[in-house]
Amino acid sequence: MTGTPRAEPKESNRSPTRTGMRLIVPLQGIVQGRGGLILGSLIPCTLFYFLQFYLKRHRSPPQNPPSRSTSAANLSELQRSSSRANLLARGSTGRAHVSARVSSIAKPNDSPYYIGLDRVREDPYDEMGNPDGVIQLGLSENRLSLDLIEEWLSKNCTDSILGVGGDALGINGIATYQPMDGLMEFKVAMADFMTEVMERKVSFDPSRVVVTSGATPALEILSFCLADHGNAFLVPAPYYPGFDRDIRWRAGVELIPVHCRSCDNFTLSITALEQAFNQARKRGQKVRGILISNPANPVGNMLNKDLLYDLLDFARERNIHIISDEIFAGSTYGNEEFVSMAEIADSEDADKDRVHIIYGLSKDFSIPGFRVGVIYSFNKSVLAASRKLTRFSSVSTATQHLLVSMLSDKRFIQEYLKTNKQRIRSMYDLFVAGLRELGVECTKSSGGLYCWVDLSRLISPYNEKGELDLWDKLLNRAKLNVTPGSACHCIEPGWFRFCFTTLNEKEIPLVMERMRKVVESCKPSV
Amino acid sequence: MLSRKATCKSHGEDSSYFLGWQEYEKNPHDPVRNPSGIIQLGLAENQLSFDLLESWIARNQEPTGFMKKGGSIFRELALFQDYRGMPVFKKELAEYMAAIRQDRVRFDPNNIVLTAGATSANEALMFCLAEAGEAFLVPTPYYPGFDRDLKWRTGVEIVPIQSSSVNNFRIIPSALEEAYQHAQKLHLKVKGLFITNPSNPLGTTLSIHELDHLINFAIDKNIHIVSDEIYSGTVFDSPRFISIMEAIKKKHLENTAIWSRVHIVSSLSKDFGLPGFRIGMIYFNSKTLIAAATKMSSFGLVSSQSQFLLSKILGDKKFTRNYIMENRNRLKNRRKTLVSGLQKYGIRCLDNNAGLFCWIDMRCLLTSYTFEAEMELWRRIIFEYGLNISPGSSFHCPEPGWFRICFSNMSEETLDLAVRRIKALMDSSSPNAC
Question: Which residue of B has its CA nearest to A166?
Fold first, then answer.
């Protein structure tokens, strides 16, 4: 595998006591045999103190695992801060700790999901400037319909980045402190937009909308509200790699995967859910909720009405919550109809309190840079707590102002959603057809910005190592960044997520050409 | 059904600081529609220099518009979500920070981590530096929001460093040591000092001696120093502002352990008066912390729109330097108006050279030298005189009778009205030695 992110020096704080102890015990044994208890204790203790003194004087930098590209600057920082500094610092015997989570967060990315994104950043494909660069198929971003938004902006004379149409007095309204959970008019606009996205089968209520700086913090805030540190959520696997970060890092909530299988087209089964719940209970792990993504990421299938009702029943019987991440709800392209958890909650008054939806403008509306996410909940207490927590993840008022009129333009939004879906559909058809010509199949999906590709015949051995070998080949030889199933906690090896909405049509043949070389070079496994 | 964190009171919004705001929301003063309503003197926001920003924006429609000669930049901004932030913006921010510190310190843009506001920065710092149950020492009086921002989701504790009006609430070494010992008694591991410089609510800047004490203490105890310098651009009078970074450099400690344990928080909300844009930052010397905090900033990224616009504004160096100067003058004059008004009616203000507020001594109005009497006085001031000023107890002030009063979030007329109401309050009170 490659990986050239610069290594961060680990600030570990190993005490000399541990190293010392490894010498005492055998020493004591040796001495006790001849010199009795006193000598047997005295000598090792003296030796131990000398050892400690020696180590303190000559402490070497912490042993880092061999890192790929340690720059000279980092090395010298290590030596300075660990050896001389401790002699200079009065009274200090070791470095001040940072929190335990820092070392695991700060270390270079080791998940293929993030490594791949880093590689694209370092060597991005560009038709003119870098035709041999890495083609991005690992980021679920939609670049197909931004022109529609640009057109709206130019037609509505809002060239100003502030979207206030040159009304200079606007600054007072956007610069000052505003409610952290979003301006009222923006919540109304988001509720309207979500209603359109769900094709008016649900009517979203602005008073249940809490705005956050993206869906990432929306999920974190919900995790803090619904679970205590150490509790768990059940999550159908394979799942979006970012969940591990969003839910674990700071909220400290565990994720228990509920494995879905190719024989079921990776559809969630209630039986599997039940098994996972019971096993968790046996382990003493408290499950507080189920986290689903619908349309699912990375598989791209949608949960049907019956399954959603079953999930609500399941949640009610065990008194747990349901978080439904519906961020791709407007990016559907199949023949099935999308059903939001909100629709189910609307019809089941008694259990509304356990339903919470995550949404945002990063996928359906292609504006991840502006940082707009939504928590939509039927639970008043969750809304109250979430509102207070938005101060840590708040949306820019200027961004809200820029987007309000756009999102409230119903005709534009309806046109946009319709055209966007058509474009995603075309790309999907072309992409899947291209893969099929190479003998590669995908699961039948109906939503999202990606397809779930079966390369299991090409990996050898048929396990995670074989899968990662293929991923490495794809990334470093074919220069295609795709996400391997293991990064998504998929229990069956050989599946990969390919995002296709960052491409334009002309680039598909290029992608397929690069794929062909890899496919032909792989011996199909027996 | 909800988590412990969601149902506890650690959000701190039952504090009198926030209750005053709630009363204001119910009956807000408006010169035309509600002239007898409550005047908001509890919000530390700078509204004095919007006209400068507005005219800049009006003059710079082209560079800040989406359409460029080569096409639209909308697409680029819409898709930009790199948690390392826009390089051009961080470069301008680093230069701006240096300019506020009279270029006595240089900042490396690569050491800046962007967050959605200083609130997000402070919380993220706690997540990086401490485990739940560990503590930071914070000089009193301090901003009430810290009880929520530093403690709520992080589980970190605050141990106050006591102060006294006798020496104008300055930080003294014995108080630092006392606080540390107090933490030990409570079995709390102290991870660092959390200072606000310039201070909120005092509005004073730390002297080089205080900074020295703090640095020596942090070296001795092997702990971190977080310096929230969010008001650094509001220093309108001497003595000049000395950043913790400058103090460390002065002692030639750049190559020692303490260097990587010093962290600065800042934002464009106070000096630039742009809280709505949610632009905050942490400045680290430690590469490990930069790496961790950068990834953690995913939970509160700055909108690309904000980064782009501010990189243009800050990039106009002439405008920025003029803005800093003009803004300072306006703050200085506004403070003068308030202080001379208050002094006329017998209220003493702490002599402050920075901030958007004054720390005023209302002890003479207390019926007894207790915090209950302070609350009683506060309620009278809100309900009978329509002024939301913030009581010292909400800032954990060790002595009753002190209040914080903001002066830059309203028009001159409204401030005059506020002063007249204070006169009415003084007139109606029994004449103690004020």
Answer: B58
pLDDT class for A514, splitting at 50, 70, 90?
Answer: very high
Q: Are residues B220 and B135 in the same domain?
A: yes
- Beta carbons of A396 and B295 less than 8 Å apart: no
User: Which segments within B229-311 are labelled E, that is strand?
Assistant: 262-267, 280-284
Domain boundaries, given as residue ranges, for chain A: 104-144+414-522, 165-409
Q: Does domain A104-144+414-522 have CATH number 3.90.1150.10?
A: yes
Based on the fold, state whether residues B44 and B64 are members of the same structural domain. no
Provide the 3-class DSSP secondary structure of residue A65: coil
Residue to mutate among B151, B222, B224, B225, with most A CBs inside 10 A, is: B222
Residue A225 distance to chain B (closest CA, Å): 5
Query: Is residue A148 helix, strand or coil?
Result: helix
pLDDT mean across residues, chain A: 84
C-beta atoms of A101 and B128 within 8 A = yes
Residues in chain B: 434
Q: Which residues does chain B have within 8 Å of residue A398's beta carbon, measured at their own beta carbons?
A: 276-277, 303, 305-306, 309
Count CB pairs under 8 A between chains A and B. 283
At which residue do the structure tokens 């412990």 appear? B4
Query: Which chain A residue has its CA at the smallest distance from B260's CA?
Result: A81
> Tokens standing for A9?
């020096």
Q: Which of B256, B285, B316 marks a domain boundary?
A: B316
B151 assigned to active site: no
User: pLDDT band at A55, cuts 50/70/90?
Assistant: low
Q: Are B258 and B396 members of one domain?
A: no
Alpha-carbon span A77 to B287, nearest angstrom: 9
Please count the structural domains in chain B: 2
Tell me the three state secondary structure of residue A354: helix
- pTM attached to this predicted model: 0.87
B98 and B26, same structural domain? no
> Considering only alpha carbons, which residue of chain B is nearest residue A229?
B3
**What is the extent of the structural domain holding B154?**
60-316
Give me the count of residues in chain A.
526
Q: Is B369 a catalytic residue?
A: no
Q: What is the fold of A165-409?
A: Aspartate Aminotransferase; domain 2 (3.40.640)
Q: What pLDDT digit, counting tens, does each position of A102-159 carry?
A: 988 988 888 999 999 999 999 999 999 999 999 999 999 999 999 999 899 888 866 6
